[in-house]
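Example record

One chain of 334 residues, shown exactly as stored in the release files.
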Amino acid sequence: MPYLKPKDLYARLRNQEYKPVYLFAGEETYQQEEAWRFLERKFGVDSLNMEIFYCGELSISDLILAAQTHPFMAEKRLLVVKDAHKLKSADAEALSQFLRNPLDTVCILFLWPERVKRENKNSLLFKAAEAAGEVVEFKALYDSELPSWVKGKIKEQSKTISDEAVELLITESGSSLLDLSNEIEKLVLYAARKNEISAADVESLSGHTRQSNLNNLADSIESGKTVAALKITENLMSEGEMPLKILATVYRVLRRLLMARSLMEEKNSSRADIQRELYLNAYFDRNFFNNLSKFTPVRLKKYIGLVLKADTELKSSSRPEQMVLEELILSLGN
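Predicted structure tokens for this chain:
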């Protein structure tokens, strides 16, 4: 059976359909934390009836003892086991035996902060959690899902936000839900007297961040704005960004352009096919095909060769890292 989706988990919890065991797994740890806090509120547990364990320093006997302890003047106890991906195989064996008959007055929540792989699904912990309760998978959101997520968070604060402001906020903050949530909190406070948050609000609050964002670097490279790309690189370096991370952004842009060119010329793919294949966002990548027309496969392959050369230099040369990156970006304009 497929694992439960977060929206289905919330629906069941609202209907008071509780399980004694939950395993929250996946790379989207911010959403895991939100779901944990929702579960905590639904159970109404206080500090006397909640314990947190860490698998890196876990005594399995202590966890099992806690799981056998009835709640104190309450209906439920909640045990949260963090870093479940670090659970030792011997501990997983003992735990899987216990989870065959857990107390229904105690809920054990395992937090697995990594992408779920095939071998994980066959592990003792996943099988035991699925048999005794629910495994909920928290996958990272696609770029196309981020705008509606942002709008939903803004709506929770009884406000709206313009499409332009959403685009700018995501461009500024990236795709991390934790970062986006923090920025949304600031925006709501900043625009306290307004019903709708505008792009001007986002811009005013973000200050210099817009110029030193890896997403803006990607946009500048893709659109061939060499001067802007140089300025962004300078800002990123001055703020301590890792040179290899900057280089990886350049490589990602060029590789995506080359893949699109190859699909178009070698497989005769349509724009719609390319959009699906490369997961292009109709809103954020609306200029992609206009930018693509500026590049030939030969030119893109040449540029990728220059990126690989810069990668070697950054890892082995004594030349200043910023000089290596700036020379690369200048070469992309030729």
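Notes: Residues 213-331 form a domain with the Zinc Finger, Delta Prime; domain 3 fold (CATH 1.20.272.10).
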